[in-house]
């Protein structure tokens, strides 16, 4: 009997495990495909890039500093030797330094130091411990392969930027464990560095333009509020979203994403979501569950429909530029807090009249569509940019004349034949584009339009016509 119950227990356990395993395999299928594809290309890509960089470094080593760099070095040295030693911020960027100038080290009170665009390696940074009050350090575009252990002594260091170096996943990030902001973009990272878990106070991480597929280690950063993993072939694991409870801004542009996982709704504090230049074909209905969301950026995808649930949000920024939209629901009027709206480069033939209810709207972009008419927008008193160019409008939208705060108006590349005299009463207008319309030359209408254009130019408006 005991053997029988033991068998039942093992069978149940095995069945439960198989169900979990099936779900796991399904959700991680995309990750496996990406890893296999990436492994196939990884060696050749890495070798080619390192060869290219090696040639560049070798050429730089042989080449003496350019005349411009030598002049810049001289200027920096003179400046550093003459200025007060209580300087809080120093920038010596783009001078081609392969060693730090000695004049720098008398400024021990410095808190901000920019050493970008030089030829510095790990060895040249050992002496930075002479700046015990250093809070912000910028080392972009150098030749760093790692960080020196001496960085442990920089106890006040909060912000480090290491963009465009030679750092890989073995970089010793635990030497800067106190930082709250870290830039690792454009390096040689094929994995998220293991030591990143030691940065327990990290709040902002920019790690775009690398070769990352799996970003699960980032979920261990419990205080992270800002994350940018753009331009990586990333797989956003559904399981990890619940662990990033404090995340407020997530950017994963150009990351080959095909869907938005439902588990993203567990990030209750998410205010900004940018998934531009991916392969998304829809906005899922659960997007409306992101109660804190203020900015949604989805330009250059393949989205054809705006779900009604989106209008539950309190968005102030909505970017659906360059998708496949054919219609804008009238319910868009529910986005009462919206300030910036991008609907350009779609297939829209009309804009709903309810757009006139978005009274907080400041910027409206609807160019490069198929609009034959334009709705009244006279209630949108906060508008200061309106771009309706490259459509099929045959008449000037008269309601625009009542927009007192409007500074930029683009009606170019339409089919409009004349201009209303009332345009002269738009006193805040600074830029007006009206080229490539149907104003026929050598006609009375053309002469009237040309006179209005001249009057606008005399008022200081920058006008593009014909």
Report on this model:
- It comes from Sediminitomix flava.
- The protein has five helices and 17 strands.
- The protein is α/β, with parallel strands linked by helices and 466 residues long.
- The chain has a domain of 178 residues: Leucine-rich repeat, LRR (right-handed beta-alpha superhelix).
- The protein has a 17-stranded parallel beta sheet, with helices on one face.
- Strand 7, helix 4 and strand 8 form a beta-alpha-beta unit.
- The N terminus is likely disordered.
Q: In percent, how much strand structure appears in the residues?
A: 5-15%
Number of strands: 17
Helix-strand string? HHHEEEEEEEHEEEEEEEEEHE
Please give the count of helices: 5
CATH C-level class of the domain at 283-292 and 299-466:
Alpha Beta
Any idea what the CATH architecture of the domain at 283-292 and 299-466 is? Alpha-Beta Horseshoe
| Rg of Cα set | 28 Å
Helix proportion range: 10-25%
Structural class: alpha/beta
Largest sheet: 17 strands, parallel
- The CATH H-level superfamily of the domain at 283-292 and 299-466 is Ribonuclease Inhibitor
Intertermini distance? 94 Å
Tell me the CATH topology of the domain at 283-292 and 299-466: Leucine-rich repeat, LRR (right-handed beta-alpha superhelix)
Morphology call: globular
Mean pLDDT over the residues = 86
Low-confidence stretches: 2-24, 32-62
InterPro entries: Leu-rich_rpt, Leu-rich_rpt_typical-subtyp, LRR_dom_sf, LRR_domain-containing
Signal peptide: 1-20
Protein name: Leucine-rich repeat (LRR) protein
Keywords: Leucine-rich repeat, Repeat, Signal
